[in-house]
Write a structure and sequence with these properties.
Two copies of one chain form a homodimer. Chain A has helices at 5-8, 12-21, 27-37, 46-58, 82-106; strands at 25-26, 62-68, 74-80. Chain A is of the alpha+beta class. In chain A, strand 2 (62-68) and strand 3 (74-80) form a beta hairpin. The radius of gyration of chain A is 17 Å and the shape is globular. The first copy, chain A, binds a DNA duplex through residues 1, 5-6, 8-10, 12, 26-29, 45-48, 50-52, 54, 69, 71-76.
DNA sequence: TATTATACCTAGATATTCAAGGTATTGTCA
DNA sequence: TGACAATACCTTGAATATCTAGGTATAATA
């Protein structure tokens, strides 16, 4: 992606899972869809995506099947499994926690405001 | 930190710079302060912090000076330079962009809503 | 016919964090 | 006194994640 490599680390898997929540997709499509949904902020590289998909498939978070496109080309579709949905929920919860932490620090931190 | 290692990557430098924006600090103090401001979300390790401080100092983003604590112990304080403030601004802008991107994807993505 | 877009994949370099260790001083508690 | 915890600094090596840069192959387009 164009952003600081580090920032993206850890969120890629969550984003991939999130995409599949709205329906089965094939790799190439995910890259376009991620770019579209993020208003071009995320330009995921194939070298990033495919290893993630393979790891998730091995871990049974995704299942895969091949299907012929109208053009005649074969596409490998990925489908979110129940286990994958659970992982997505965990990743999202972690993102919320992390995100809140960063915002707290950027806004000056937990001050005298919070008590009890 | 306790969160997925990857999520933190890239944000650590920004958080360190942000801490120093409110005043000079020494390493050990930054770890405690970061924890406090983030409501215990960030527990930065020394093995993470010190290399970051050294890198930032080498790049002239921070300057350092030693000062004796009331206890008699020596502490190494870090001070944000003008260049450091500029880097912080850049890092924050990048965080905003990244953050917005993630939220857009998590909320379903850029749909028919946005036009022009 | 040549180039671009589609569609999949992998290997190696790079970057970041963490775990685990080290050194040394100060404060506390038995 | 002696032992341990807390303070305060540091480094090395392993693990993890991403990107660069390549590879293969088919379909559409100029």
């Amino acid at each position: 992606m164009k952003l600081d490599k580090g920032l993206i680390a850890g969120s890629s898997t969550m984003l991939v899972l999130k995409l599949l929540e709205s329906g089965d997709m094939y790799g190439y499509q995910m890259i376009e869809e991620l770019s579209r949904r993020s208003n071009q902020v995320f330009q995921m590289q194939e070298g990033t995506l495919y290893p993630i998909l393979h790891t998730l498939e091995k871990g049974k978070y995704l299942s895969a099947y091949e299907q012929q496109a109208p053009t005649g080309r074969m596409r490998k579709y990925y489908k979110l499994t129940r286990k994958g949905r659970q992982l997505l929920a965990e990743k999202q919860a972690e993102w919320e926690k992390f995100h809140r932490g960063v915002e707290d620090v950027l806004s000056g931190g937990a001050d005298a405001l919070s008590f009890s």
